[in-house]
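Hi P.,

Sorry for the delay on this. The queue was packed all week, but I finally got your sequence through. Input first:
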Amino acid sequence: MISICRYTLNKQTEWDDFVKVSKNGTFLFLRSYMDYHSDRFHDHSLMFYNEKGKLIAVLPANGPSKSPLKGDFPANQLSPFKGERGGGLFHSHQGLTYGGFVLSPEIHISEVGELFRLTISYLKENGFCEWIYKQIPYIYHLIPSQEEDYWLWRYNATLKACNMMTAIDLGNSEIDITSSRKRTYFNKLTRQGYTVAIDDNIRNFWPILEDNLMERFCSRPVHSLSEIELLKQRFPNNIVCCTVKNPDGKTIAGTLLFITQQIVRTQYISASHEGKHTNALDYLMLSLIRHYSKNPQYRYFEFGTSMAEDGIHLNEGLILQKEGFGGRAVACKIFTMAL
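Then the structure:
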């Protein structure tokens, strides 16, 4: 029999230790990453134990708001008790790129069904009306981990959104499908003395990113500079800033990489006016793809999603750029279950 309880601060070590040995968890599910934006999301993560008291799954999640719910403890002392009336939407997880159940490698498909049954019962008991379930894309699974697909179907979950990511299979060495045009830019900039700095100072790149987003979209990065520097300090091997330097040593383009067990993901990509004029981003991406493909640990190079502002249509121009490096489509699905 499986039991369920709500995450509390005194369980942080247990939670983190489990995520590190799970079959589909990444550093984004560690509490020191999840809790950096605890001022924006009201954490309501859940933990699941088998009959022997062993942790077999966790569910990163948040409730409808950061404001304390009726009967809640303060944010730094979340109530472990059932019966508090949450109400509204239950997200798993609204503040993360992907979410869903993080599972033990030994878990059985029938036990995953029990996780869904218990969670639905718990959410009903606590007054939630809808569960928004954001899947972990299959390329992040260290071993097969798609039990949830069956149970989402069994529990009549509705597909709410399908965001398209683009990823390169670094293990496919049979053919090189990077466009000849991108290889031409790469060779040209190499001859001219442009270089790539891996694990550069984030402050060399962030002004370029901020200026670009403000100029094109009148917006700011999801992470502030102080937030991303804090996360970099906490995860120095997982968050890496890579930049392009012109022959004079000036930073003209860059990207932030989020590196997990087998995936290198571009979290932000941006170039200055000089960087755009010289096609520095093509040079940067091809350099990084070649660099990380030499390490057999990394199976995929992932470019993130390419959706239009309405969240429904594709940004086809952006996808074509990514496909020009050999990237192909990976679905990131979000389901909803009425309770």
